[in-house]
Amino acid sequence: MYTKSIIVFTSLARLCCLGLALVLTGSLTAQDITGQWNGVLEVQGIKLRLVFHVSQGEDGLTATMDSPDQGAKGIPVTKTTFENPGITFEVANIGMAYQGTLEGGTIAGTFRQRGFETPLNLSRDAIDLAPPNRPQEPSEPFPYRSEEITFNNPVAKIALAGTLTLPLQGKNFPAVVLISGSGPQNRNEELLGHKPFLVLSDYLTRQGIAVLRYDDRGVGKSEGDFAAATSADFATDVASAVAYLQTRSEIDNKKIGLAGHSEGGLIAPMVAAGSREVAFIVLLAGPGISGADILMQQTELIARANGMAEAELQTELEMLRAFLDIAASGDDLDATKAALQARLQQEFSNHPERVPEGKTQEELISDNLKLLTPWMAYFLRYDPVPALEKVTCPVLALNGAKDLQVPAKANLEAIAQALARGGNTKATTLELPNLNHLFQECATGSPSEYATIEQTFSPRALEVIASWITGQAK
Known about the structure:
Helices cover 29% and strands 27% of the residues. It is of the alpha/beta class. The chain has 3 domains: 30-123, Lipocalin, CATH 2.40.128; 144-289 and 383-472, Rossmann fold; 291-380, no CATH class. The strands form 3 sheets. Strands 10-11-13-12-14-15-16-17 form an 8-stranded mixed β-sheet, sandwiched between helices. The chain is globular and about 70 Å long. The two termini are 33 Å apart. The model is unreliable at 2-31 (pLDDT under 50).
């Protein structure tokens, strides 16, 4: 789901929708700094390229940021200032700030994010890094058919683009639609140099299972506005993918299932609840508790794994709980933001030491309010239990024992109990040892390890998923 680890924009490691208005302040002309600025961020032995694109608009300077090694592009920079020679970039909703000094053709400065800081120099020169070693990533020629397809979502009136892989031999194949985790994801669910859905689809198709994976709305070749959508909207995309598979003569209409990772594991039961078209679902680190409870648990677990001091952690948890109690309290977003603003004003007035150096109370409150997007508000309030109670098809729910983002014990228990209350006797829940949120074999489960692990998807997990789906197709 979500994580606050350094510069991680993903699956439930992506913090939230980044479609925010760009803000400008600045007193000098922009031609001195417009264009592309490149740098390399070094975090815990990992090298990540950052690229800032600065433009001169009618109202002044604007900027976007890319993190190419994480598959993140076009992230709006919410504040861009240039007062020669000083330059500042801020991306409020991930808590990131960069301050530098223009010196000839380079910018020397410091990158900061949520208490972490490190030197970061920027230049006009493009930077090439050796690609990370990802030994599981398949390459052509594939021993199966791979077809670029599009399908329509008549509810949203958009076309979605994806890839359908089909075994070469046979007919009436079972099929599965892959549903990505939170944040804008391409069809491979690409992050940190990993392509989990490419590896998963390749493995399943080699086992005789057709797989449809697609770019999220507004991502890659898919139409639509990602930032304006909630999980309920994404559920209509999934239902449209199922409807598309029903038109394919190669597919057995009675054996079409869903496999959702993280937020995708929340969406799959939405679509399957009471459906006759969905034959089975696989929940990969899917939530069984509310989004607000998940954020509380993952914040504590990740902070402890990263060595946060206990006093600092308790302060952060106290503030987060206060934020979540208000943010999840109603469905009127404007009223909720007003209540949250009042609470934050009181908090920071009573505890001015919690306002970071270089930022005003008003700026900090504004940054927090920007986090409360329609998607976030929906996610915080949503309880997956009612949908799970209505799921009648077979269910496989898997979690890694070291998952710090969607903790295994609490969520698997909640899923199992909800399915049982609904009378579903065809459910299997399984906690896989030593695996993290991405189903990688890991040391601690911290998101800071994701990029350094060469493995993309545990072979044991792949085997369990394929074997179970094959069993449902008999």
